[in-house]
Design goal:
This protein is α/β, with parallel strands linked by helices. The protein has helices at about 45, 50-65, 80-90, 105-115, 155-175, and strands spanning about 25-30, 70-75, 95-100, 120-125, 145-150. The chain binds ligand CA2.
């Protein structure tokens, strides 16, 4: 809780702790792909009982804790996901994406992620490497910073923590590196 006596402790509660936090608020875009809006209602034996709203609420709580501003979107349309990725450049410091079935088919999403080069974490609820052969191939895994797969809804939180740590290190690097040495 912030102090209630009108004085501050020098920290903006909307800002993250850590080296970069005094300069700006990190913004991260969360993208959920096709059919993830059905979570919790269908196929609970495969995808669990948590709804997408519940996952987004826990992400929002962690975002508040880490001082990260989150925008969360879901689409069943490949082109819409591509457009959102393109628009992410210069707006978001990071992306977390579960492209769902497009993981295994979409050169367009891969090309968009490669083009914007915003640090991205790929998330899958299930372990795609121990499922059907067609799910083992991800078209984006070699253009993203990292992949979290098989931890259910917790995977999104691990991804956000990992991205936060990565982006914080980048900011420290930017501040401490001498001009012309990068
Ligand atoms: O494990 C994951 O997160 C997946 O990205 C989920 C995708 C699947 O195509 C990928 O291979 C792995 C499927 C998302 C659809 O979610 C549903 C949820 C409830 C009912 C039906 C589908």
């Amino acid at each position: 809780m912030p102090p209630t006596n009108g004085k501050t402790d020098g920290r903006n509660p909307r800002r993250g702790e850590g080296a970069g936090s005094a300069l700006y608020m990190m913004r991260v875009l969360i993208l959920h792909g096709p059919n993830l809006n059905l979570l919790g209602n269908r196929e609970p034996s495969v995808y669990g009982t948590a709804t997408l709203d519940a996952i987004n609420e826990s992400l929002s709580r962690l975002g508040d804790e880490l001082g990260i501003e989150l925008d969360v979107r879901q689409s069943n349309h490949e082109g819409e996901l591509v457009t959102w990725i393109q628009e992410a450049k210069a707006v978001y410091q990071g992306i977390i994406i579960n492209p769902a079935a497009y993981t295994h088919t979409s050169v367009a999403i891969r090309d968009a992620l490669a083009a914007v080069s915003v640090p991205t974490v790929e998330v899958h609820l299930t372990n795609i490497h121990r499922r059907e052969a067609f799910r083992r191939r991800s078209y984006i895994s070699d253009v993203v910073h990292g992949q979290v797969t098989g931890f259910g809804p917790t995977g999104y939180l691990l991804a956000l923590r990992g991205l936060h740590a990565h982006l914080s290190r980048q900011v420290v690097g930017d501040i401490t590196s001498k001009p012309g040495t990068k």
